[in-house]
Design brief:
The structure holds two protein chains of two kinds. Chain A is an alpha+beta fold. Chain A is built from twelve helices and nine strands. Chain B is elongated and about 65 Å long. The chains are: A alpha+beta, B mainly alpha.
């Protein structure tokens, strides 16, 4: 058992390292680092001192947002640090730092010698971006409380805490599995063959496939939980969240890591929602609720209150 | 009919068919591996009962 845990930790650290390394890589050997600073600045750090006449010339830099290559951003000021290794570009307007920017630096001159031209991508730290996708899907844009998706399963399995947590975990596994498969098929099969219009059909097929697989496996592995889910396990197929996530992934052209984070966030967000709701509904069993509201109606009222509370997170941005 | 459209339709049919076949076989294998034995007597007893409840 202990060996097993250590193995897991090793695998996790490996993946985190890979993530960090891919996040920090720059594209040119002479440029050590490019990053945003403040609202309208980009800072470049070079491996060696650069010539002042070259660095101060605006014509040597061109910057645009990755999506709009024909709109060049206007540079108003160029500052060179005393050790001549750091150049700070100041732009006329504030930069939209959620977008990746392409920075082209022509013929970098260092001690009279040219270091070639560099095409650099400026973006926020990738790890932070992934984390913001995760937290965004989990809490800020919680699918149940801010988008009102997946309510059938949500009300059906939130009567008891154990069932709710079991459903949340199963749902997370199913959604990660299904959306990763959908992402893969969309990016590598549907898009290259121009079959994007079939995305809904294929995604529904993949979702029902993973639900069927979980159904088969759970029936054997954990019959008690299987019985507790009853009809709701099959209803996961008709859950809106599980079809919404692959569609969002396809729309936003997310890559593998971003897709993983969004589906994981959606799954854990559903788990959180189920856990909160089931905690309240267990207490509601003992409360003196007017007969008209007993059962599902009061549950809807409580869900509305939760949605109001989750509205407090709206508009928040991380990093 | 535009031959490009026919090509697209045939390609779509093939791709969906292959995906369906692949996952169908996968599910069949999984069902075989995780098969749960159901006692046939349960059904027999249920059928002989009145079934009013």
């Amino acid at each position: 058992m202990r060996m097993d845990r250590r193995h897991h930790i090793l695998v996790c650290t490996f993946f985190i390292w890979v993530l960090l390394l891919t996040g920090c890589a720059t594209e040119h050997r002479f440029v050590k680092k490019v990053a945003f600073k403040d609202k309208n600045k980009v800072v470049m750090t070079f491996a060696g001192p650069v010539d002042e006449t070259w660095a101060k010339d605006v014509a040597n830099y061109s910057v645009y947002e990755k999506q709009d290559p024909d709109i060049l951003l206007k540079i108003t000021d160029i500052a060179l640090s005393p050790d001549k290794r750091t150049v700070t570009l100041t732009f006329e307007d504030a930069l939209n730092q959620d977008q990746a920017h392409i920075l082209t630096v022509t013929e970098m001159m260092s001690a009279g010698r040219s270091q070639g031209t560099a095409i650099l991508t400026v973006k926020k730290l990738y790890f932070g971006y992934l984390f913001s996708i995760l937290i965004g899907a989990m809490i800020i844009n919680n699918f149940v409380f801010t988008k009102y998706l997946g309510l059938c399963v949500f009300f059906g399995t939130s009567q008891k805490k154990t069932t709710a947590v079991g459903m949340g975990i199963t749902f997370t596994i199913v959604i990660v599995f299904a959306s990763m498969m959908s992402w893969f098929l969309y990016q590598f099969v549907l898009k290259p063959y121009h079959l994007d219009f079939l995305q809904v059909v294929v995604f529904i097929g993949l979702v029902s496939l993973s639900v069927q697989a979980v159904d088969t496996i759970l029936r054997k592995v954990n019959p008690a939980l299987f019985k507790a889910f009853g009809v709701y396990l099959v209803l996961v197929i008709a859950n809106c969240i599980i079809i919404a996530v692959p569609l969002i992934l396809a729309d936003n052209e997310y890559n593998a890591w971003e897709s993983l984070m969004l589906s994981l966030g959606a799954g854990t967000g559903f788990l959180i929602a189920l856990f909160l709701m089931s905690s309240v509904r267990e207490k509601l069993e003992l409360a003196n609720v007017p007969p008209t509201f007993r059962g599902l109606p009061i549950a809807f009222v409580v869900a509305g209150l939760f949605a109001l509370a989750f509205l407090g997170f709206s508009g928040m941005s991380i990093f | 009919m535009d031959p490009a459209l026919v090509k697209l339709a045939l390609g779509g049919l093939t791709v969906l068919g292959v995906i369906g076949l692949f996952f169908g076989i996968g599910l069949a294998l999984a069902a075989h591996k995780f098969a749960v034995e159901i006692n046939p007597k349960i059904e027999e007893v249920k059928e002989t009962l009145a079934g009013a409840q």
